[in-house]
Design the sequence.
């Protein structure tokens, strides 16, 4: 485990998957990250790369050659190397190897950088194409936050407050983990989503191209919450394991295959195309 901290925050990251394991606010004494109880879900903040979500039949094709990848890709199961560390920042890096090339035929450097400033944590993803041709990928976040944060409150005492009024449907997820072909009603001329555990009994809430680029976790019974900012991510997932005491807020550049997917990787919705030598960068922030 690796730690960065300042007067207000202490952040702990696991090199396995470069996964956020703790976000502790020294000023108010609260831990914000889910504890990873395997009874519900053993992860805490996995990184999603080089795909987000599930592929149809767990497979895809490039130039008529078929490859297999399991849900969310392989980065979350890889040990990242430390490339740089200061008191307030730490960088983790993963590069392709023989195993990755057998399931994902691209040469890449993928870095996660954690940076703290006052009571704000920034997580930045850098994807560099170090191969000779075009690289195809998706990347996404999956941080799980403890809920309730204040022990005396209930899960249902919280809500998400988007920074823009939304008219956005929820894209259902099939039993196979694929995105259905039409959305169902969810946010109708509102910026407020009350939280209940039953919201996630049919898997994640998936939103596409919403107006907001930040959301607050709030309660009217206690001032302690957080603000989560996700500029430049066209998709947002919101999820919790059934009856678990956490909420995942998941900004994605990429999305699971649709039920109608051709399985051709270059035609996949949300796929990012990166030229040789080019670098892709996205960041999300949480202020606690």
Sequence:
């Amino acid at each position: 485990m690796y730690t960065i901290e300042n007067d207000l925050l202490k952040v702990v990251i696991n090199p396995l998957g470069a996964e956020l394991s703790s976000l502790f606010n020294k000023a108010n004494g609260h831990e914000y990250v889910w504890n990873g109880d395997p009874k519900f879900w053993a992860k805490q903040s996995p990184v999603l790369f080089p795909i987000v979500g599930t592929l149809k039949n767990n497979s895809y094709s490039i130039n008529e050659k078929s490859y297999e990848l399991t849900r969310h890709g392989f980065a979350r199961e890889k040990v990242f190397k430390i490339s740089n560390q200061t008191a307030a920042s730490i960088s983790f890096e993963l590069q392709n190897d023989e195993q990755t090339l057998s399931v994902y035929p691209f040469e890449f450097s993928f870095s996660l950088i954690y940076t703290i400033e006052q009571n704000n944590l920034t997580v930045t993803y850098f994807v560099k194409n170090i191969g000779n041709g075009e690289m195809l990928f998706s990347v996404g976040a999956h941080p799980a936050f403890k809920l309730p944060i204040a022990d005396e409150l209930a899960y249902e005492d919280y809500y998400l407050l988007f920074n823009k009024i939304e008219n956005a449907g929820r894209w259902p997820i099939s039993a196979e983990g694929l995105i259905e072909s039409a959305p169902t009603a969810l946010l109708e001329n509102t910026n407020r989503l009350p939280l209940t555990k039953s919201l996630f009994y049919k898997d994640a809430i998936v939103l596409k191209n919403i107006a907001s680029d930040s959301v607050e976790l709030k309660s009217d019974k206690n001032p302690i919450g957080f603000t989560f900012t996700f500029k430049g991510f066209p998709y947002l997932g919101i999820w919790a394991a059934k009856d678990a005491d956490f909420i995942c807020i998941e900004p994605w550049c990429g999305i699971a295959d649709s039920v109608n997917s051709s399985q051709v990787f270059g035609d996949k919705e949300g796929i990012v195309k990166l030229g040789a030598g080019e670098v892709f960068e996205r960041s999300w922030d949480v202020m606690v």
